[in-house]
Amino acid sequence: MKKTLKVLLAVVITPIALFLILTLLLYCPPVQKWAVEKAAQVASEKTGMRITVEQLRLSFPLDLRLQGLKALQPNYSLPGKTDTIADVRSLTTHVQMLPLLSGRVEVDWLTFKGLRMNTDQLIGDLRIKADLERLHLVSHGVSLGEERAKVNLADIRGGYIDVALGDTMPKDTAKKEVLWKIDVDRLQLADTDFRLHLPGDTMSVKAHFGEATAQRAVLQLKDNTYKVGALDWHDGALAYDQNFVPRAKRGFDAAHISLSDLHLGIDSFCYAANTIDLRIRAAHFAEQSGMRVNTLKGTFHTDSTRLALEDFHLTMPETDLKGTFRMDMNAFADRHPGQMLARLAGHTALGDLRPFLASLPADVVGALPKSRITVKGQLTGNLQRATLQNIHLRMDRHFDLTATGRVENLTATNRLRADLRLKGRTEDLDFAYHFLPREVREMVRLPKGIGFNGSVGITPSAYTADLRVTEGSGWLHIDGAYHATTAHYDARLEATRFDLSHFLPTMELGVLTGHLTAEGRGTDVLSPRSTAIVRADIRQMSYGDYTLDGIRADLQLHKGRMTAKVDSRNPMVGGKFGFSGRVDGKRIDGHFRGQIAHADLARLGVKDYPFVLSGYADVEVGSNL
DSSP H helical segments within 496-561, as ranges? Predict the structure, then answer.
């Protein structure tokens, strides 16, 4: 009986003893070397790779030290060449043993030094390339069966990570779908570059992390969704490119954004379906166009078609603005541009706006004032057609303006169109001449101290206005239109002590008080090509050396034929009379008839000495002016 028990005990104990002996042998360096070589051989045969390990040390229970791990895969496109899948200078790790029995992996630490890797097509349609000086991981909660991983700490220092998502190449249907979900409590990066490529390489993102910490990150590899609960990023750089969109030659390019000197604080980040959403707590950076941002807060969204910054607060060297900004990526395109919305309140200046004005002619930008611009209101549209909603602009020493309406073709002054409701006051407007056609610049001046309230319209060939204008002690209400190509005009004027010479210095007009309606073509009344129908009640007015006070007149001019009826209490000519005749260049010929109360020929320029007439006149008149 005792013998039988001994035999049974030996049968039970022997396998256990052998297992323990074999397990203990694994901690012996010679056995470890043999086991590693055998494992590398088997792994190479199974994977089709060439896997080698220079040295391995295993301490109880599962403390692993490994050096010189390499995994090479044949390059099927270049015969005789190989691709490096993994190249690890050294690896140390401590894994808890008991959780492994239930399919869980608890890693107290896993540290790579000198890590180079390329997943190629090993993880579905996700490809990750990396070359890192150091990668340190702590992970308590890896479930192999559920394909879930909990990473308590990931610390990355030196090198780069390159991620390509969902390439356009056909998926390998024979591969098992990757369902892994990875939760990262804390990710630390230092002196590390990151590159992200979207499907077909249509869009790419490049980032440099001088020092960064991310918390509560979630990586869902199945649907390429990546989230971060909070991020603090310092001494960084960020570039965003739509790779198939041509680059702008100068100025801000929404399809190719490059930030440097980047310091960023984010409270939430999500990338999913080629879309980026993030809430910016604080930001500081410089952009390649010359724009520099000192602080930025708000909610940011971008995808392949549009960019948005909601409820933001932005400060730049000369700017402090709050508002909302949305823009289609093609908003600045020459053909079929997208839309832009800017709802702003605050102030800015030309120095900060230059990157967005690159499409304007250099002489126009150079003429713009550099003073602070206070702004409030909403702008929608693009450079081809923009709508203004209660825009209030104020620039000290230049203007204070409120505008509502639309403007078209801002970058082409010869095709400029506008329909605006305006109210405000101006001072120095010399810069505005650069926006006017040459023929208008030669005729019109914009004096200081103009007040205005009304509406104006501009087309490439016409100007319209229904506007009350004040200047000095005078005011003028004008409701009319002028067509530059035909010189046709149609106007109704009412004025009190309004000095026209301040606005039209070449026309020898003086201070105006009175009423006037005029319709015609051409401003030279002596030209046979001019036409006019004018009704006037002039209480105060001058034209050159002529005083036109106290005149009520009706005048018609057509093809050189002029008729006029005048009721005058003018100091130069008084009475009731009419004229019918012809004008041709500098000559007037016609018939003058009426009761003349007085006519001062000297003041009329007919005589060079005092000579006053009165009486009834019925004469033929001819004069070479």
Answer: none
Model confidence over 14-59: pLDDT tens digits? 344 433 444 444 445 554 455 455 544 544 555 556 777 776 665 5
User: Residue 42 is encoded by which pair of tokens?
Assistant: 């088997």
CB 495 within 8 A of CB 513: yes
> From the CB of residue 208, how many other CB atoms can be counted at a distance below 10 Å?
21
Question: 98 burial class (0-12, 13-18, 19+ CB within 10 angstroms)?
Answer: exposed
**Is it true that the peptide bond before 61 is cis, omega within 30 degrees of 0?**
yes
Structure tokens at 593: 């008839």
- 219 near 181, Cβ under 8 Å? yes
pLDDT band at 98 (very low <50, low <70, confident <90, very high): low
Where helices occur in 26-179 by DSSP H, the ranges are: 29-47
The sign of the torsion formed by the CA atoms of 281, 287, 293, 294 equals positive
SS3 3: helix
State the SS3 of 40-55: HHHHHHHHCCEEEEEE
Residue 26 is predicted with a pLDDT of: 47
**E runs forming strands in 243-339:** 256-272, 275-287, 292-293, 295-302, 306-316, 319-328
Written as one letter, the residue type at 328 is: D
The answer to whether the beta carbons of residues 260 and 237 sit under 8 Å apart is yes
Whether 589 has a pLDDT exceeding 60, the answer reads yes
Long-range contacts formed by 353-360: CB under 8 A, 24+ apart: 354/251, 354/290, 355/251, 355/252, 355/287, 355/289, 355/290, 355/291, 356/251, 356/252, 357/251, 358/248, 358/250, 358/251, 358/252, 358/289, 359/251, 359/332, 359/383, 359/411, 360/410, 360/411
**Torsion sign across C-alpha atoms 258, 262, 265, 271:** positive
pLDDT single digits (tens) 385-398: 899 999 999 998 99
Of residues 228, 222, 121, the one with CA closest to residue 185: 228
Does the pLDDT at position 79 exceed 80? no
* pTM score over 0.85: no
**Which residue has better confidence, 357 or 287?**
287
Amino acid of residue 87: D
What is residue 231's predicted lDDT score, i.e. its pLDDT?
A: 92
Cβ-based burial of 619 (10 A; exposed 0-12, middle 13-18, buried ≥19): exposed
Q: Give the range among 167-176, 231-240, 568-577 with minimum mean pLDDT.
A: 167-176
What pLDDT, on a 0 to 100 scale, did the predictor assign at position 201? Answer: 77
Measured from the Cβ of residue 173, the count of other Cβ atoms closer than 10 Å reads: 6
Res 301 pLDDT > 70: yes
Least confident window among 6-15, 105-114, 122-131, 354-363: 6-15
CB 430 within 8 A of CB 453: no
Strand runs labelled E in 1-103: 50-59, 63-74, 82-95
Contacts of residue 607, defined as CB under 8 A and 6 or more positions apart, other chains included, come to: 601
